[in-house]
Structures are given as C-alpha cells and as structure tokens.
From TrEMBL:
Protein name per UniProt: DUF4870 domain-containing protein
TM regions (residue ranges): 18-36, 57-80, 100-133
Entries under InterPro entries matching the protein: MamF_MmsF
Membrane topology: Multi-pass membrane protein
Annotated source species: Flavobacterium pokkalii
Manganese as UniProt keyword: no
Amino acid sequence: METKNDKTIAALTHLSALSQYLIPLGNFIFPIIIWSSKKEKSELIDFHGKQIINFQLSLLVYSLICILIAVPAFSTAIFSSMDLPEIINRHEFFLNHIDWAANNIALTIGIISIVIFFIFKIIEVFLIIIAAINASNGEKYQYPLTINFIK
C-alpha cells in the first residue's frame, strides 16, 4: 500500500526533471538522487524513478540524433559553396556569399531537425506534468516513445 508520502515523492521525482531549465543536467541528477535513495522503500517510487530516468535518457538519444542531423545539414549548406583555401584564408565570413538556393534540401533537413528538437522539449514538459499528476494519485504512468534502459 502506497502512502501519501510515497505518492508525493514519486511525483517530485518526475517534477525534478524540470530542474534542467535552471541547472544543467538537473533532469538526470535530481531524479537519480531521489530514486536511488527511496527505491527500496516503495515499489511506486521505484517504478516512477525508472520511468523518468528512462524517459530522460530516451530524450537525450532523440536530441543527439536531431543534432547529428542538423549540424552536418547546416554545415553542408554553409560551406558547400566555398573552397577549403577560401575558408582558411578568409578573415571575414559573410552569410551573403552562400548559395542558399542550391542548398535548399540541406537547409530544410536542418530546420526540420531543429523544429523536431523543440517539439520534443515542449512535449516533454507536458508529459512530465501528466506523469507527476498520475504519480500523486498513486497510478502508474509510462511515457510514450521511451526506451527502457533501466528495467
């Protein structure tokens, strides 16, 4: 039987991931600290701790994929119209020397990747709040599109 304290701690485990907007890596540090210190005392806290950590790790993987797509796409768009000696010897770099029309595909891929990244960040906030509400009610909540790193 879950106590009110267990439900509150489970909810706080989810909400602690929002600390990433104030403290770098807070979305990993605080949930791990709360989960590891309380996981033996409550099955509910153990379940929710695993869920938020798996969700944050999954978002990290998805974010890295978006970055690994966006950086080469933008780099290709910016540097494809310049020769290597021109890049090295040029002391000034102007974006108006780029042939934007010839690089539409690379730019589109890069922009779509960045947009997907920001959509993930917006959805993340809402899903964390939903999970915290479910945890405070003593219900088990599983995040969508989550890779189970910790079982």
